[in-house]
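From the pipeline queue, job 12 of 40. The input is one protein chain; the requested action is below.

Action: predict structure.
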Amino acid sequence: MMVKRIGPAFLITIVLAGMVVSAQQRGANPAAPAQPGREVDAEIPGALQSAAMPWPPMHIYLRGGLKSHGPGQHDYPQFMADWSKLLTERGAIVDGGFHFPTTAELSGVNVIVMYKGDAGYMSADERATLEAFLKRGGGLVSFHDTLCGDDPQYQANILGGAKKHGERNFSAGDIAYTITDKANPIMQGMSDFKINDEAFFLLTKPTLSPEGLHVLATAPMPKSASAGDHVGEVVPQIWTYERPFGLGQSFRAFVWMQGHTYANFSDAQIQPMILRGIAWAAKWPVDALMTVRQPQGGRGRGGRSGA
């Protein structure tokens, strides 16, 4: 594992360039064809080479940001450190950065997992890079205020929902989830429960392929000074979104609205749900990340990195 210090925060990246994998159907074991014009990288970490896996490694890009808010809140750098390790131990190839990924960095990536405040702010070039990734079927995973920005309609059309930066549209307190689709494989084994976190309302809905939005859980807005008349309003907090885009391809997005309180990423119901959501968005079997396949604390070879 490679550690690179960037100002007050640090980025952990575990990289394998050149492995391209795809799985087009939910539940199907994907094949592992090499991308035309590229060779499979021979320097796969030894522990991963010897791991018994019924499918190729999933290639995940983690996009983080510098920490904001108080202790234990919006801890994007800690997420990068913890989840690069957690996902690698489950057989994934993990890359990432605190910057918007380049086209080269997204080569071979199956899913971008984002935990960064106001990630909806994108330049025209960044949108073009993202759209090229989505057109080839790349997936997105969004946590908490990642879906916030200056153009919520654009963000809603890639994530299935968004909120506008600067608008008073949040309330903190007990988030009481009602699982609306317990049969969905992402939510398997889950029951209604509560966590203390922050929820959003006044969401912008997608105008492109609105039928591709599928709500997995809702919650009433907790009472707080910021909630105003929205106290008790039931709003989707966990969902999937799938939209046709490109030449015969579709892309998938999985959204968990919480994560204001970083400790909730380790919740006994939340963490497995996130792992299944990442796999679903990547078009891998939903249980692809549920098994630890490398020794705890195992190290892979370092590679690309950046800020």
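Job complete. The longest helix spans residues 76-89.
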